[in-house]
TrEMBL record:
List of residues binding Zn(2+): 413, 416, 437
Name of the coding gene: ligA
Official protein name in the record: DNA ligase
Domain BRCT, residue spans: 595-678
Species name: Microbulbifer pacificus
One GO cellular component term noted in the UniProt record for this chain: cytosol
Protein EC: 6.5.1.2
Similarity-based family: Belongs to the NAD-dependent DNA ligase family. LigA subfamily.
One term of GO molecular function: DNA ligase (NAD+) activity
Amino acid sequence: MTKTIPPETQQRALELHDILNRANYQYYVLDAPELPDAEYDRCLRELQALEKEYPQLISSDSPTQRVGAEPLAAFTQIRHEMPMLSLDNAFSDEELEDFDRRIRDRLNSSDPVEYACEPKLDGIAVSLLYRDGILERAATRGDGTVGEDITQNVRTIYSVPLKLLADDVPAVLEVRGEIYMPKAGFAALNEKAQKAGEKGFVNPRNAAAGSLRQLDSRITAQRPLELCVYSVGLVQGGDLPERHTEILEQLNRWGFRINSEMAVAENIQACIDYYRRLGEKRTQLAYDIDGIVFKVNSIALQKRLGFVARAPRWATAYKFPAQEEMTELLDVEFQVGRTGAVTPVARLQPVFVGGVTVSNATLHNRDEIERLGVKIGDTVIIRRAGDVIPQVVSVVDSRRPADAREIEFPSHCPVCDSPVEASPGEAVARCSGGLICSAQRKQAIKHFASRKAMDIDGLGDKLVEQLVDEGLLKSVSGLYHLSLEPLVTLERMGEKSAQNLLDALERSKATTLPKFLYALGIREVGEATARNLARHFGQLEKLMHADTEALQQVEDVGPVVAHYVAEFFEQPHNLEEVAALQQAGVHWEDEVQELGAQPLAGQTWVLTGKLETLSRSEAKDYLQRLGAKVAGSVSANTHTVVAGPGAGSKLNKARELDLPVLDEEGLMAMLRTQGIEI
Ligand code: IVH
């Protein structure tokens, strides 16, 4: 026996439908949420509870029905009453102008034609049928005449209204649009797949297609899909505006997401401008687009123009250069970086992709080669989006030739022949040759010369390569033995620039210990670590003799960094280089020597509130120089708390624990008595 629903419960359920539908619309369609999450959850739970008590309340358009349903055995076929057409393409400005000319010829008019401009989303075309404002059925395009019923899957997508947001909608309204996966959702989905040891999807379009093809809609419900609508199909029992862009705006008011980049162009020149503008913005958009669709905006003119074969005469898609192309993997070479990392680089049959000709792409490391399962001779898909370096995204298995070769990771460095070593747990393999390896040497010299290191003006990457390749430069210290004559023999090097370089080298000799340490290019020693090391040890000599235990006393230095530093100063050729650099005149002032002069060693200080004379990082720096640790929270182990205006809970805690508290003046006085000049 089903219980009769009290009228006020019925009423409340409808109210909750409205609240939740509107909240979904604001959140998923307008990107402008108004209802707080907690309130949304409360309403949803209330509705779920009502539906549990009175199951007759559950309707197909209830906001609770978005979680997916029992799996289907197969998709049913659906015949589109109005065929779903495709679009003609244009690939150049001229072809777009031809499109416009054909239209004006056919209309027998020389007046400019107004166009609607919309990004061409790269997803899956769908048709949604609403009867009396309620979603009845969703179908794929299929062959344009017959598609598949994917209603259960589409229902799980929050930007698909289950019920339209107005009463004045046509009795029958078929809306068409694209279901797609935004780039961020795609990346997150693939990351999850990778962690689970699964292969993931090649691109957002495949991910969207795969998600919609699920017989189990509960899986679709987990996928970050969105709908954007771009036209109407069958419309009965109601009228729509007379211009395409106005129809879409009407659809937007009824509950559908439309593309926020949609625009009206007064003539074909404005269309070309729009195409250029969006082309520049393409990589910043949250979703993939593969071109711009231009449509004659007047519906009356659309009707006059009609169709040819499977495409309308009144619309065209002006495609962007493809971001993915197929080509052949000719070979794999191995490049060696500054730290010896050996990176596999794909040599490709040149292919035009993303607007440029690509003949190399990175394969990252051994794991990536394994993940792709790629062999030499394979046909691969290359992706180049924006300025991102070209990637190999997948292998076209069906095109593998019989003589495809395994990619062999070298056991010896391709540049210097030293053994290549892979540390366990690390995806990267490294050449063990250190500075013997000319590839590492080039990178090491480039790093040494860079702005944050020795800051050698005019010593760019190209010049370093030239100098090493010509045999003029064998080591970092060799820089300081360069002379004018051999320099001017280099290509593109006049006497003036050679002299400028020598002057810059001379200037660079006066440096600081942190910069010098950073310039040495010790693994994992970036600017900040170099600074900490310099401050802690004060003198290079002391640092060079420190063992890993002593090194780990330094702020932010753990066992790994300590190991790299100690190892660096154990290698004779590194010691020789350091000595050679000093002999050549590289010099610096010792840092304020801290060891033995660390009156605050063993103490933990906490800074809270606003400091007015010192910046917080200066105060922290000074305290650390004196040997104190600076922590973020107050505990019984805290030695002193420095509290400025606005201090709150930390100061209260200090008082509770009866800890010494200083204000900023007190801190400065203490620092001065310790010999710090401020
Ligand atoms: S209009 C009769 N507008 O592109 C016109 N299509 O090659 C029908 N597409 O299957 C399409 N964004 O899936 C139109 N703003 C847009 C579009 C768009 C993507 C897809 C659609 C269609 C294909 C045509």
